[in-house]
Every structure is written in structure tokens, then in C-alpha cells.
Amino acid sequence: MDTSKRGKQEYDQMVKNASPNSPILTNCLKAFFSGGLICGLGQLLLDYFSKSNGEEEAALLVSATLIVLSAVLTGLGLYEKLGKYCGAGTIIPITGFANSVVAPAIEFKKEGLIFGTGAKMFLLAGPVIVYGTFTSMIVGLIYYFVGR
Hints:
Blueprint: H1 3-18, H2 24-52, H3 55-75, H4 78-86, H5 93-107, H6 113-120, H7 125-146
Helix pairs in contact: 2-3, 3-5, 5-6
């Protein structure tokens, strides 16, 4: 066995020994149930708002409510704690996106409104917006030319 292969195996063993065991099943269950609770809250809100508004308006109100709720939780420092406990369950697109916009804005507010909050607000969310828009344009063009 050559020394580079043996060195890689020794390194892999050191990493394995030094890395904590990840409770994969527990993490998956936490993510599943926390994501389900967020979606369940969204459904409860939809049912509530649908009683007094139209279905389309109720959907907008649910989105706005979940965005404001996650932004407030981020501002209070609770969303991060929730994320540490629940893991991937808190990255439901609408709440996770709101968190990814608010968190950098809060973090960089000491640098001022323009160069801090304004410039850094979309630090995490910017690439999502850019690539989401680009991808939707490509899919739209494919549908326009091929899907007819």
C-alpha cells in the first residue's frame, strides 16, 4: 500500500474518531414534525382567513402572516434557537426565506442603514432570488417552445 493511500485512510479514521455521532433518525423526526407544525399552522391560518375572505386573499394573508411571524421570531433571536433544535424543519420556504433576509439585516445594522442593513440584507437571499428568477425564465422558455 502506498503512503498516500495509507495517509488518507489514517486521516479518515482520525476524522471519524473526532466527529460526534449524528443522531440521524432523531434529526429527521424533529425536522419532519417541526416542518409539519409550521405547515399545519399555515393550514389553520388558511382556514381561519378563508371564513371572512376569499380563498385567494386568504392565501396572501397566510403568506404575509408567516413572513411577519418568522421575521419577528428572528428579530427576537428565537428563530435561531428553534432552528438549532428543529433543524431542517424550519427551512420551510416562506419562513426560511424571511429568516434569511432578516438575520443579515439585523447582524449588519451597526454598519448603517445603507452599507449595513441595505447592502447586506440580501446576502443569503439574493442568490436564491437571482437563480430562482433565472431558472423560472429558462423553464418558461422551454415550456413556450417545447410544451406547445
